[in-house]
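can u pls check wat happens w/ guanosine-5'-triphosphate
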Amino acid sequence: MLSELIPRSFRSRMAALFGLLSLLVGLPTYLYVSEVYREQLLHDRREYLNALANSAATVIAENLVERRREIELLAQTTLYRRAPLDSPEFRPSLERLKKSYPHYSWIGLTDTDGQVRAATSDHLLGASVAQRPWFQQGRHGIFTGDLHEALLLAKLLQEQAQGQPIRFIDFAAPVYDDAGALRGVLASHAHWHWAGDVLQAVRPHNAEELALDLFIVNRNNEVIYPENIPAQLKVPTPEQLRHTQSGHFHSWGQAPDNWYLTASAAIKNPVPSTPLEWRVVARQPEQTVLTDVRALQQVILWATGLAGMAFLLLAWIGANHMSRPLEHLTRIAHRIQHGEENVLFDGDFDALELQRLSHALQGMYSTLAAQKDSLAQSNHRLEAKVAERTAELQRLNVELDKQARTDTLTGLPNRRQTYERLEEEFVRFQRGHEPYSVLMLDIDFFKKINDNYGHATGDIVLQRVAQVLRQSVRDVDLVGRVGGEEFMALLPMTRLPQALLVAEKIRQTVANTPIEPVGQITISMGAQEVGVADQSKDKAVELADEWLYQAKKSGRNRVASELTPEATTG
Ligand SMILES: Nc1nc2c(ncn2[C@@H]2O[C@H](COP(=O)(O)OP(=O)(O)OP(=O)(O)O)[C@@H](O)[C@H]2O)c(=O)[nH]1
């Protein structure tokens, strides 16, 4: 199954291998680089939020100190140290200070009993503020009060507040005379709107786009700016911020998407004896931060992907370049396969291994070609030898055949050949050709010759008689030895009378040819013409044999037949 997925060609395998390698190298690299950049980006963002929160905290702290110092310095002026508390000069002095800073809502001077003796716009003039914290603590030293809703001034400033609850932050300073005795308390109420102005100053111009939020939180972890914040909003405490949950983000409530990258900075207390313990908290939604992270990861993914593709392309080109010489060698091998000869494994091979392969193939091809030539020559020689042997065998076969059909002693056709020829003549006769005659011949008293002169002399006699018989007949006739001292003469196209003439001539020639050391010998013969009623070739031979018997019986050295029943003697 897996092997089916592996590409077959060298080129594809190289490309697949490099593709796999680029994936193996590229993927971890991408994951590592992407993680490193992610961490770096989150770290940078948090640092940025920290810096933002710190700078906001610093500006707020400086502002608070400024407000505190204004009251403090005014309380130390000659007017406040020496002038009677019902002096008409106080109000213009207070109005000047209020005018110098738009967020002052009210500035007033009380006597030591807490009765307002001078105030901006004469608000609360003559009223008692003896129970107010700023008066009670302001008698003993510089005081900065926590944010609170306007109580006594609420009605007076209604118009200014446009229906919204008015919240103030109080600054107070004791007023002493030249001898250092307490004369009263000088206090200012700054409208809480100033917090918005201060934060606005430090907010970056693209805060909206970055979805950045800034908060001022009091010691109870309640948001005091912006106002009207829903109560379920849970600002992470400094303790929680020290421990990062879920990576870098902190939950701001129960909703699942309520996760923020959060930074916090404590606002330096303007008056250490009356600490406010406020802090500025800056946050950015997880989604916004991660969008940037994802955008960055996407850029890295693209860069890694493109590098991988380039690597793959290079691998493909490289594999192409490497496989080309192999394909060239394959083409040469195919030419050999299709029978081309004297092929050279040449080519421009840069790689040492390919040069060696080409030399090895050339060597192998040369060896095989030489072996093929040698084999062809061997085959050729073998074929010639086989042909020679076959001819010799054929010759021997002919010779053997001839020997099998020839009598070895006399050289005449033997009984087998004689009867084959007889069969042919009988068939010819049956087809309507001319008749033939058969002579059966037998040497007279041959036993005596053997007995008297020995078997070897008997053989010589047989050879001489055979010689005479051969010389006495025509070429078309056949004389064969068919028994010990028995011969048969087959005379084609010969009727009985002509056959008797031939027989007589033979008889006389034998009788007139003495053989050393035996002297004269004679032969007896029976002659018979083939008959139309004959059933087989043997019929004429049997009748000739009978006439031979008659010739012997009649005294030998004679020819007997149906025309000469008594036979004739020489
Ligand atoms: N030397 C020799 N003798 C042979 C050969 N074949 C047969 N004979 C002899 O021929 C003789 C034939 O003898 P018979 O059949 O008695 O006839 P015959 O002596 O010729 O007497 P008639 O035929 O009656 O005149 C035998 O003694 C055979 O051994 C042969 O190849 N060589």
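The domain at 415-569 is CATH 3.30.70.270 (Alpha-Beta Plaits).
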